[in-house]
Every structure is written in C-alpha cells, then in structure tokens.
Design a protein that fits this description.
The structure holds 3 protein chains of 3 kinds. Chain B contains 10 helices and 8 strands. By secondary structure, chain B is α/β, with parallel strands linked by helices. By secondary structure, chain C is an alpha/beta fold. Chain C folds into 2 domains: 213 residues, Rossmann fold (3-Layer(aba) Sandwich), CATH 3.40.50.970; 112 residues, Rossmann fold, CATH 3.40.50. The chains are: A alpha+beta, B alpha/beta, C alpha/beta. β4 of chain A pairs antiparallel with β1 of chain B.
C-alpha cells in the first residue's frame, strides 16, 4: 500500500513524536526554522537506511500534537 | 489518493498555544474526534478548567463554559441538570480536579451526575510554572518539592480515580495515556465509552489521561513520554478501574 | 420567598444548609419537583454557587440562598457571575459575625454585599426587604432584574426576616416557556455557531474594556433601579436612615416619637446598591439631622456620609452581634437627640 503525508510546517513545533512513531523512517526534523522559530518535521528527501516508503499508516499523524499532519492513502 | 487523516471539524483551525509535545494538544484532538465521530457537535457542552487548558474554548468548536479552578464538576452539574439530554464534559488538570476540586468531584461522582470528567494527569502544575501537584510522584523534583517529593513532608500522590471508583454513583472510570499511538487509541476508546455511558444516563464517568509535560518535567518531548510510560505508571497503573456495564454483561453471562 | 421565586420562573435551586435560612431550601426541595424543577443539596456553598453558574449558563432562572459565613464561601462564584455576566438570584439571611458568629439577626454583611463582595471590579444589585410581602415581591422582581442586566442580584435580609411569618399576596405564576429568550446561553451549537462564556481575558487592554463595559452597565442600573421608601419625612426635623429589619424597628419608633410630638421620619433604602444617594441628598436640603440605625457597628453610614457630603448632622446608633433592640430603645435615643441638639 502506498501513502503520502502533508506536514503543515507553520504548525509544527518540532517535538519529534512523528519521527519516533514512523515505522518506515520516512520523517526527520529538518534544518529550517518556521515562523514560530521551531525546526519543523519534513519528509526525508534522501531515502533512509530503513526507509520502505510511506504506507499511509497514520501513526505519525496520530502522534502529532499539533494536528499538523494530513495522511493520504492510495485507493485500492 | 484518499485523505485518511486530518483535522476534525470539531477542532477550530487555531494553532495551539501549548508547548511542543504537550499532552493537552494530543488530548484535545482525541476528544474532538470522539465528539465528531459520535455526531455530538450539537449537544456537546465543554467546561474548561483554570490552568494551561484554560483557553480550550479557542480550540473546541462546541459550546464551552469556563469554570473557576476546581469547580468544573459542580458547574457541569448545573449545566447537565438543566440540559439532561446534552453531552456535558469537564476538562481538568491534576491540580484542578485532585487538589482544589476534590470535594466537587467526589460529590458529583457520588451523586452519579451524568457528566464526564476528562482528567489530565501530568504530575505537575503546568501553567503556574512546575510546582508540586497532588499527583507528583514520590522522589519527583518540582519547584516546590526541591530534592524530590517526600511522603513525610508532602504526602503521597493521590489516586483520585481509584477513590472515585468506590463511590456508588460512578459508572465508568478508566486510566489511559497519550504517549504512544496505542495509548491514544485506548484513550479515544475510553472517552467514547464514557460519553456513551453518560448519554445512557448510567452515572458519573471519568477518564484519567497520563500526559507528558516536557517543559515542567524539564525533559525533551520524547523523554517526557518515556518518563510517563516507565515512572508514572508505577503510581498510576493503566486500565479500566470501574465499568458497571462490564459487570452487568458478566452477570448476564451467568 | 421560595414560592415567589418559583412564580417568577425559577426552576433550579442549589444550596447548602445553614441557619437561619433553612426553611427556604426545605420548601424548594418539596415544591420544585411539583413544577418540574430541580433541587440539589450540594456538598458545600462553593459547589452550590458553581452549580448556579452552570444552570445560569444553560439559560435557566436559578437561585441559591445562605447566611453570612456561607455567603463568604459563595463569594468566589459571585465574582465569576459578575465577570461572566450571568443572571442569578442569591439570598443572604444575615447573622451575627465575624467568623462563625452566631445565628441571631444582623446586618453586618452590608459592606460585603454592596461592594461586590468578591475579587475584581464588579457590583451586584442588592435589595433589602423589610416585610414578608417585600421578601416575596423583591424576590420575584430580582429574577427579572438579573435576566435584564445579566447580573447577579442579592437579596440582603437577616435572620429575623428569615424566621418571621406574615401573610403575603403572591404574584402570578409565570409561564417558564414564555420568559424572554437568552440567545447567549449554552444550549449546544445546533443551527448556530458554537460559543463560549468566559471571564478570562488575558490581554490587559481587552480586560480593561470588559471592565468599562461592566461599569457602563452598572451606571445604567444606577440610573434605573433605585428603590427606597420615605415615611413621614415631609415635615420631619430628624430622619432615621435604616434598612431591612432595622427600618421596621425604626418605623415603630417613628410612630412612638410622633406620639410624643417629635417630628421624626424614616428614610428606608430598598436598593442598597445602587444606593439612593440623590434622594437622601434632596432630603438634606431641608432636613439637618440624620440618625443612622443599623444592626451592625456602622456600615451603611459610610454611604450616608458619601451621599450627604457633610451637609447635615449625622448620628449613628448600632447594635452588632445579633442584638435586636425594641422600638422603645430607638425612640428613647430619638428623644435624647431632640433634647441634646435642641431640634425642632
């Protein structure tokens, strides 16, 4: 199953819960700050070691305190 | 691509004022999701507390009436007695519900008020700057328990949920956490069940949610979650503490 | 009072027992269920006033009652009612204080009642009945005032008023369904946007504006809701100023003194806040001697001084602690005043 996520960088406070929750190592805390001054979470550009790609499992969004992640999944 | 996760409509699009990794943020969304999934937007009335969540009315898109510190259960009693078909819930922290509001909460439970208290336990006073809470763990350092909470000086952490379970008017009490996806799912299920039991008119319901407060625990968000999962649960074990519907089912089985 | 409240459309009562006002909740516990209302005996005064807040938020006509020490506990909630701009009727059957004091009639909560009582810049409308009929009529009126101004109304009486029995003529029973609607109430966001009721305003400038808004409302109340009684003041050389039970005693003393040929009158404030200062000031254009009589150590006298601004001679006599003097005692003091000051 393939999925994708959209992270609202303006709302993200960089807590890192999504990075921890992602089973496929898709997310990281980026090197840019947002308007609030936080380093925000981004989808990794380069594939990580354990990156099997986003499956749309929603664990990151479930753990996101800021409701900053939207999850989309491929229709079967 | 189909959207499978997004902001519930019952949560206003305002960014939270809470710190990074705050349990309130997670729990607000969970409560809003339950209200939306139950289709209870038009009958829900929330009672926010004094404390960090005092601004909860900026986030929940349902009717909200602010209570004084600790008085949520009494105020909710007044609301519910006038509007018996509505879904009335309080949202209270540990200082609010388990210290200054203990009497109001115990008696609302004992009267079997058909309300739901959502009790956010993070073992510390958040908004006032990290003072000792009634639920601060033994040995836990806060700004008013330097060197750690000592039972002879500060008393023990209060297990309010277990106390309330003894009252005959309480129908459903569960303790969960919001430190993991599994914990959040359990919290959502518990709140839904509490709301349903309230609407069935079976009695007082409460869900205690162990929640990370990274700022006042002086930890990173992930460390704070880990602390809840490894330290707090020793004093506040997770699980269903009372469920009168379960015992009825058990009786039916006999 | 309880029956008057029910007739005014009150369907919810939350209270906690305290002497000398228990007859009211006892009556409510029996009568409210008969009219589809709800009575709850709370675990404390603090809980009961917060239940009042909840019921008021839900749009109901709601009432609580207590006596001095209990009213002190309710002050937290009364301040919130003021800040949240919620209507409610609160009865204080005053007893001797401070502290636990006693259970005898007193008027020593005048300052607390007329200055708001709790924290913050706010006022409650304060009505002081002096007879059974007035207890009934003012209670009935209090619900309309509370709703109209979205403000708590305090009925300030005392243990004597709370315990006495007098025949009264009851006002008509209101149809609760036909009371004015409250679009601001919390009733669930059905067919409208959600709204909230709060007293927390973190921004000081916004909070200041909220305070000024409250003050404008209080000015409006002060313009429209002054109530008082003048008894034989037209030709009086000396006027007794008293409220509630003290005024009742004073009225009998006036009659006695008149019998002795002394030209004495009575000015009885019925609304203690707003205080009938202008009426008193107008009276002072002609009357030069005022005698303030209270069942306390001297509280309303400050409002009399403020009203008169030194324009007349003001004499005080008070009996604090629950002592209730008889009319003869007051008329003796009146006679002595006439003699000492060569009045008339």
């Amino acid at each position: 199953m393939k999925g994708t996520i959209k992270i609202d960088s303006d709302q993200c406070k960089g807590c890192g819960f999504c990075v921890e929750a992602c089973p496929n190592d898709v997310i990281e805390i980026g090197s840019q700050r947002n308007a609030m001054g936080y380093f925000y979470a981004v989808v990794k550009k380069a594939k990580g070691k354990d990156d099997k790609g986003c499956t749309g499992c929603s664990l990151c969004a479930i753990m996101c305190p800021e409701v900053a992640i939207e999850v989309y999944r491929e229709k079967r | 691509m189909k959207k499978v996760f997004g902001r519930p409509k019952t949560l206003k699009p305002n960014p939270y004022h809470y710190c990074p990794g705050c349990g309130h943020s997670l729990l607000h969304r969970v409560v809003a999701e339950v209200i939306e999934e139950m289709g209870a937007e038009e009958i829900a009335i929330g009672v926010p507390p004094a404390g960090c969540a005092v601004l909860a009315y900026n986030y929940f898109d349902v009717d909200m009436g602010e209570a004084a510190h600790g008085r949520g259960a009494a105020l909710a009693t007044g609301l519910k007695r006038v509007l018996p078909d509505h879904l009335v819930f309080t949202y209270q922290g540990d200082g609010d519900i388990a210290a200054i509001g203990t009497a109001e909460t115990v008696h609302a439970a004992n009267r079997g008020e058909k309300i739901t208290c959502i009790f956010v336990n993070n073992a510390v006073y958040g908004m006032t700057g990290g003072q000792m809470a009634p639920t601060t763990l033994l040995g836990q350092t806060t700004t008013t328990s330097p060197g750690g909470r000592v039972e002879n000086r500060d008393g023990f952490p209060l297990n309010l949920s277990e106390m309330l379970a003894i009252t005959r008017g309480s129908a459903y009490i569960e303790r969960t956490s919001v430190t993991s996806p599994a914990g959040i799912r359990a919290t959502k299920k518990a709140i839904r069940k509490a709301f349903e039991i309230q609407l069935q008119g079976l009695g007082f319901t409460l869900v205690e949610v162990l929640s990370p407060c990274p700022t006042n625990l002086k930890m990173s968000p992930l460390e704070a979650c880990k602390w809840v999962d490894t330290e707090m649960v020793n004093f506040f074990p997770l699980g269903v503490i009372k469920d009168i519907t379960a015992s009825e089912e058990a009786q039916d089985a006999h | 009072m309880a029956e008057a409240a029910i007739r005014a459309g009150c369907r919810y009562y939350f209270g906690y027992p305290i002497t000398p006002q228990n007859e009211l909740p006892e009556y409510m516990s029996k009568r409210l269920p008969e009219v589809g209302g709800i009575f709850v005996q709370a675990e404390s005064e603090i809980a009961s006033i917060n239940m009042v807040i909840g019921a008021s938020m839900a749009g109901a006509r709601v009432m609580t009652s207590s006596s001095s020490p209990g009213i002190s506990l309710k002050q937290e909630g009364i301040s919130y009612l003021g800040g949240l701009e919620l209507p409610a009727v609160i009865v204080n059957m005053m007893r001797g204080g401070p502290g636990l004091g006693n259970i005898a009639p007193s008027q020593s909560d005048y300052f607390q009642a007329t200055r708001g009582g709790g924290h913050g810049d706010y006022r409650t409308i304060v009505l002081a009945p002096a007879s059974g009929q007035e207890l009934c009529d003012l209670t009935y009126k209090a619900f309309d005032l509370a709703d109209h101004y979205r403000n708590p109304v305090l009925i300030l009486a005392d243990g004597m008023m709370g315990q006495m029995m007098e025949p009264v003529r009851f006002p008509v029973l209101r149809d609760v369904e036909r009371l004015p609607k409250k679009p601001w109430a919390l009733t669930g966001a059905k067919g409208r946007k959600s709204h909230f009721i709060r007293s927390l305003i973190l921004d000081p400038e916004q909070m200041e504006e909220h305070n000024w808004k409250l003050m404008r409302k209080y000015e409006q109340i002060a313009d429209s809701e002054i109530r008082y009684e003048s008894f034989k003041t037209d030709d009086a050389d000396l006027v007794i100023v008293a409220f509630g039970t003290a005024a009742r005693i004073a009225k009998a003393a006036v009659k006695r003194a008149r019998g002795e040929g002394l030209k004495v009158g009575l000015f009885r404030p019925i609304s203690l806040w707003p205080y009938p200062s202008k009426a008193l000031r107008d009276l002072a254009k002609r009357v030069k001697h005022f005698f303030v009589f209270e069942l306390n150590a001297g509280q309303m006298i400050e409002d009399v001084h403020l009203a008169l601004g030194g324009e007349a001679d003001v004499f005080f006599y008070g009996r604090p602690g629950g002592v209730v003097p008889n009319p003869a005692e007051i008329s003796r003091i009146v006679s002595r005043q006439f003699f000492q000051k060569e009045i008339g």
